[in-house]
């Protein structure tokens, strides 16, 4: 048999095998790729597919994930809204960092300083965990000291931190970073190779949620 024909047959055989394997790879699997959130949680954005990232500034994996998820979030389609939920799992240090997150949101400095919080903790080794060091750090970054103190100690920020903590159990969050979709699915990704692979998988779960909305 001519070599060219042999190569053609091998190529055809590989293509057939690839097509046969494709449905298995394309189909999401419960337990491997996601787990249902039962009962499903009401979202703040009923008209859109709400994606939540549960995280903490104190988590080194969240620090590694942050630039990846920031770039990913900027590419999301118009029917998806992305929000972040800082949690503590009972650690006072992480609870204060959650207060920092929401305080920067109030002062309007969150977008500017979000990555800087991770950097100062995980790259520079600054343990900005207590109230005093957090306030000093914020001031060193150009945040108005009075505005920050008012926000950090406000009832509104305390309420947001409490609400974030209350979301951990119903959303089945046991570690961070964690992604949830539409209040219905926790993305698990047990077979993924790393944090970067969590985002394409989240896209597929978003597609699942979108398809279910269209059927209603």
Structure explained in plain terms:
- The chain has helices at residues 3-26, 60-73, 92-107, 110-123, 131-140, 145-152, 155-167, 195-215; strands at 34-36, 49-55, 80-86, 178-181, 185-187.
- The protein has a five-stranded mixed β-sheet, sandwiched between helices.
- It has two domains: 29-87 and 168-216, Glutaredoxin; 91-167, 3-Layer(aba) Sandwich (Glutaredoxin), CATH 3.40.30.
- The chain contains eight helices and five strands, in the order H-E-E-H-E-H-H-H-H-H-E-E-H.
- It is globular and about 50 Å long.
- 56% of the residues lie in helices and 11% in strands.
- With 216 residues, the chain is of the alpha+beta class.
- The protein starts with a helix and ends with a helix.
- Strand 4 (178-181) and strand 5 (185-187) form a beta hairpin.
- Residues 4-25 have low confidence and may be disordered.
Q: Give the rounded overall mean pLDDT.
A: 90
**Helix segment tally:** 8
Total domains: 2
CATH superfamily of the largest domain: Glutaredoxin
Instruction: Please report which band the strand proportion falls in: under 5%, 5-15%, 15-25%, 25-35%, 35-45% or over 45%.
Output: 5-15%
How many strands, which pairing sense, and closed or not: the largest β-sheet? 5 strands, mixed
CATH architecture of the largest domain: 3-Layer(aba) Sandwich
Number of strands: 5
What is the class of the largest domain in the CATH system?
Alpha Beta
Share in helix: 55-70%
Question: pLDDT under 50 segments (min length 5)?
Answer: 4-25
How far is the N terminus from the C terminus?
57 Å
